[in-house]
Specification:
Elements: H1 3-16, E1 25-26, E2 42-51, E3 61-71, E4 77-87, H2 96-102, H3 106-109, H4 116-123, E5 128-131, H5 134-144, E6 153-155, H6 172-178, E7 181-182, H7 188-200, E8 202-203, E9 208-209, H8 210-218, E10 222-227, H9 235-241, E11 244-247, E12 254-261, H10 265-277, E13 285-288
Parallel strand pairs: 1-7, 2-5, 5-6
Antiparallel strand pairs: 2-3, 3-4, 8-9, 10-12, 10-13, 11-12
């Protein structure tokens, strides 16, 4: 370490000691997070895709990035064991707004194809796939590589209550800042590495890793309840309660719906009966778990 680096480090430590300053340090990618000490391990995959658009049934993947990691029985991330990154040339020119967002150009993907056998081999030993927007990434991944249909998935953006734990939001930049880091990512693989760092960190006041918090939530069974043909004038009531809109374009009902814990199913149906429909109804219900949650098959 040079004398200049030592001086900067000392200055950063001085500022960090004051309640009037927050210091962000550049993320330095690493591979080791917690010692295994002979413990049994499981293997997970962190996945991110870049695409030509947001339509999960029509748009195309232009980049796939994956980070393979081991985790311990107490759900702490131990180490990164491998990485995968590849471009895929779509059948159309990459839209300008996508290039502006991702930095990926037609020239970068020209002639590239992601080998499905390589993907299958990379994920074969994984017992879990994590994405920071699993509702988006899983649908694309399943379209291209069917082995992802058989994997349990977790969403690090929606299955951790980040604001409740003192973060400014669920975007990667907010989460990194919350643990005192920043990164200037240009590729999807950089975002995957950043997310590993976030999930390996302890959640404030819980003394548990964010990854453990995520898995606790992902392992729960939930129930999707559809408020089909609900009165239009009550849409704001549904939205305020947490219902989301499905436009029916992906084969699902054109309706408001909500996902609740299995224990809250009866109470949610009672809400629909007494507040929305004002009569006895039996709404469409779907059981959800990590094996089908976020999948286009539901």
């Amino acid at each position: 370490m040079t004398s200049n680096e030592i001086n900067l480090t000392a200055m950063a430590e001085m500022l960090s000691a004051s309640p009037d300053y927050r210091v962000l340090r550049r993320l330095t990618p690493r591979t080791e997070f917690a010692s295994c000490d002979g413990q049994a391990i499981k293997t997970g995959i962190l996945l991110d895709v870049e695409t030509t658009g947001l339509n999960t049934t029509q748009d195309e993947i232009i980049e796939l990035a994956m980070v393979k990691f081991d985790y311990l029985p107490d759900d702490r991330i131990a180490r990164i064991t491998d990485v995968f990154s590849g471009f895929n040339e779509p059948s159309i020119s990459i839209p300008e707004e996508i290039t502006e967002l991702t930095g990926i150009t037609d020239e970068m993907v020209s002639g590239h194809r992601i080998d499905p056998n390589a993907v299958a081999s990379f994920v074969s030993d994984a017992v879990l796939v994590v994405a920071h927007n699993a509702n988006f990434d899983r649908k694309f991944a399943e379209r291209y590589w069917p082995q992802f249909e058989r994997k349990p998935w977790a969403c690090s953006a929606t299955e951790v209550e980040w604001r409740k734990h003192g973060f400014d939001g669920s975007r990667l930049g907010y989460l990194l800042a919350g643990i005192g880091l920043f990164h200037q990512a240009h590729r999807a693989i950089d975002d995957c590495r950043a997310l590993v760092e976030i999930l390996s960190a302890d959640v404030p006041n819980l003394n548990r890793s964010a990854f453990a918090v995520l898995l606790e939530r992902a392992r729960r069974k939930t129930v999707r309840i559809w408020a089909e043909q609900s009165p239009f004038e009550l849409k704001d009531t549904l939205k305020k309660r947490g219902y989301r809109w499905s436009d029916g374009s992906d084969g699902r009902p054109r309706s408001w719906y909500i996902d609740v814990d299995e224990a809250n199913e009866t109470a949610e149906i009672e809400f629909l009966r007494t507040t929305i429909y004002l009569r006895d109804i039996d709404p469409r219900i779907q059981m959800m778990s990590a094996t089908n949650r976020f999948s286009s098959r539901v």
